[in-house]
Design a protein that fits this description.
The protein is mostly helical and about 150 residues long. The chain has 2 domains: about 5-65, Arc Repressor Mutant, subunit A; about 90-145, no CATH class. Helices cover about 50% and strands about 10% of the residues. It contains 7 helices and 4 strands, in the order αααββαββααα. The protein has helices spanning about 5-20, 30-35, 40-50, 75-85, 110-125, 130, 135-140, and strands at about 55-60, 65, 95, 95-100. The strands form 2 sheets. Strands 1-2 form a two-stranded antiparallel sheet. Strand 1 (about 55-60) and strand 2 form a beta hairpin. Helix 1 (about 5-20) packs across helix 3 (about 40-50) and helix 1 (about 5-20) crosses helix 4.
Length: about 150
């Protein structure tokens, strides 16, 4: 699995909005400036997030975007799947099941299917709130060498 720039920036946008909204709307220009991102690229990402029901928008002078739900109600998997289409580690494993004529005889299919489940299980347990709050223990899990020192 390789998360594209679109997926990474979508998480950045969602995180920025969650940190800076205070219940109100956050302008695209403010996000672009804070995150040092192109307005044109941000517009395409915001459009995907907005159409996918992740954001609410308001036009006008005090308009912008805000989260449609609380940060703890978003898991990272849903944000990335919306922007990436799939998180499958190989092309033959897709969100709607195996898409391969050789699935019945493929000796490596169980490996890829298992990896797909691990990725989805991990990303589904991490919320936008975890990122905002810097919950390193939850994000790193067993790989957190210094979590006890935090």
């Amino acid at each position: 699995m390789m998360v594209s720039t679109k997926g990474r920036y979508a998480l950045t946008v969602m995180t920025d909005i969650a940190r800076n909204s205070d219940g109100g709307y956050v302008s695209l220009a403010d996000i672009a400036e804070r995150e040092n991102l192109s307005m044109k690229y941000l517009e395409s990402i915001i459009s995907i997030l907005n159409k996918g029901g992740m954001l609410e928008s308001l036009r006008g002078k005090n308009g912008g975007y805000k989260l449609a739900r609380a940060p703890e109600d978003y898991n990272i998997s849903e944000i990335l799947i919306l922007t990436e289409g799939t998180l499958a580690p190989v092309n033959c494993i897709m969100q709607d099941g195996v898409k391969c004529d050789k699935a019945a005889t493929c000796s490596t299919l169980p490996l890829w299917a298992g990896l797909d489940r691990v990725i989805d299980n991990y990303l589904s347990k991490i919320t936008l709130a975890d990122i905002i709050n810097g919950n390193r223990r939850k994000m790193l899990g067993d790989y957190c060498e210094h979590c006890d020192q935090e």
